[in-house]
Amino acid sequence: MHIVVCLKQVIDPEITPRYFKIDADTNRPETSDTDLVLDSFAENALELAIQIRDKIPGATVTALCLGDEESEDVLRRALAFTANAAVRVWDSEWENLDGQAVGHILAQSIKTLGGAQLVLTGYQASDIEEGLVGPVMAEELGIPCLTLVSDLEVEEDNVKATIEVEGGYAVVSVPSPSIFTIISSETNVPRLPKVKDVRLARSKQITLLESEELNLDSERCQPGVKLERAYVVNREVACEVLPGNDGGDFAGELAERLLALKIL
Amino acid sequence: MSRILVFTNQQEEGLSTGAKEALAFGSRLASSTGGEVRSVSLGPLAADGAKESISLGASIAYTISNPLLAEYDVELYVNCIETVFQQSGADILILSFDRIGKDLVGRLATRIGASAITEVVDYNADSEKLTWIRPIYGDKAFGEYTTTRSLVVVGIRKKSQNVDMPDETRIGEIIEVNYSPTEDMIVTKLVVKIQAALSDIRLEDARIVISGGRGVGGPEGFNELHVLAYLLGGTVGASRAACDAGWVPSNLQVGQTGAIVAPDLYIAVGISGASQHLAGISNAKTVVAINTDPEAPIFKRANIGVVADYKTVIQSLTEKLKKVLV
Ligand SMILES: Cc1cc2nc3c(=O)[nH]c(=O)nc-3n(C[C@H](O)[C@H](O)[C@H](O)COP(=O)(O)OP(=O)(O)OC[C@H]3O[C@@H](n4cnc5c(N)ncnc54)[C@H](O)[C@@H]3O)c2cc1C
Ligand SMILES: Nc1ncnc2c1ncn2[C@@H]1O[C@H](COP(=O)(O)O)[C@@H](O)[C@H]1O
Q1: Pocket flag, ligand 1, residue B309 (CB < 6 Å)
Q2: What domains, with CATH codes, occur in chain B?
Q3: B312 and A250: CB-CB below 8 Å?
Q4: Predicted structure pTM score
Q5: What topology is assigned to A2-213 in CATH?
Q6: Cα dihedral across residues B211, B216, B219, B225: positive or negative
Q7: What is the ipTM of this complex?
């Protein structure tokens, strides 16, 4: 069984809003290398992929990333999670790709890798949050895609997916191969990789796939949207910090303020 | 001049909130561009959905009322919406980017060769080219996008639009589309549906929400928040960190990925104030933050701040308020 998990490198989504700036010339965040991390929901997908592999004899996990050389960091991380193989896809001509173009290229990459029974992605990338790559790949590969999945149980020819629905959750069964976009849950909290695995990951090979190998459709590699302008919004409000020396003081002050709101 | 088709998903009680938001957005866009709004409803209750869509601005409401469509299935719905889209001659397809919309937008855009733009909250029709406005980078910024293809599929961010009041006197045409989805298209099979424990008050409707984060330290701490919430007639929410830790069920999550709340009073306990969390409380009236770290970003959003260990504050606050309120 071959499991492919798609990983994106993104600017750290938890940068404090105050320090977040957008460069007006490029419309991109002002970043330094240290601000780049593995997309948060993709990391949940990676964790889930490894858990599933460990339950199925002979199963393998390939981590797949579309990105420049710098983004090999996320693949090293996947190898430290004990992914079996890491593949990076890149062409220096690719600029400003959107989720649709990325979906096309990743789908072609998966075909080139010989296909997969299970493809996992994060449900929305932590930077632009398009939420498109999984469903677009489904259409490209002609297989089903379920979104907002928190857990999976893999059976012979089917997969049972736990999905968040209005007012609770549902377990839905779909035939494999299929794609799932993963949301965080208490069962897929990313592990802390072992020191030994981090060390081993450094010397493992990362395969580079180049665009000529992928049989790409040049029209589909064109982004469907163009970012014309981006700007930071300031939503800071003035905060009245309550005086006091201990919890009792604070509680008293706060009780007064809350009662004054006349909504209790 | 644009022709707009809105997917109006339906629940037993009528159109979903997302559908109403999508119609409101579509109607507003149509009046700015001089276009027209049509809708598509699926399933045995589609005729009801069509009537409601007309009362909310659709001039033509397409239906496919085949009983197979009673339960949502992604493949079935993609096929049906694609068919209606082609028949309608629309150039803009609008869906709510809610749980179902997240399945559909990317699929439909690829299928019909359209551009896809998601999490849209607004548009700008003043300039030469229509631009779509959406939050980016976890709500820290906005981006304005144009599209490169002649067709576009738009996903509207949940809870971003004011819903219009229905006008029952509006007239429109209902067209049942001649298309028969077949059983073999269905790929998903429902195994079981589990209703989350129902609290008395829905988070989204609550007037008072007390949310806990990683700083609450464990499920025990949440008990204190429940006691206070009960006293105030409010309900408890949580940050993603607290949900992911398994301290509270995930349906209590507030934020971009969770519930969007709009209470009169929001008390954030042990929550740092990440932008993705704040995205869920932008319409809260008074925000109180209790946090040990005076530098925590939550204090930039809170109206009232308490810099302290919540354990020393919450119980004492509950007791003081009990004396006055009970
Ligand atoms: C794409 C994406 C979507 C996301 N969606 C959401 C979402 O919908 N909702 C959401 O909440 N998050 C979301 N997140 C996660 C978000 O970025 C933060 O990681 C999360 O909100 C942090 O939760 P927290 O504030 O509870 O934890 P932390 O950031 O760890 O903060 C804990 C706080 O508790 C304080 N504290 C510690 N001890 C005490 C004490 N005894 N008393 C008082 N204070 C104390 C600390 O000073 C700290 O400020 C999302 C992230 C991404 C990337
Ligand atoms: N460049 C990329 N390389 C690999 N996977 C990606 C890439 N971009 C997006 N993905 C995957 O698709 C998911 C959804 O991304 P998006 O559709 O951009 O919101 C992410 O969480 C990743 O799992």
Answers
A1: yes
A2: 3-185 (3.40.50.620), 203-325 (3.40.50.1220)
A3: yes
A4: 0.96
A5: Rossmann fold (3.40.50)
A6: negative
A7: 0.96
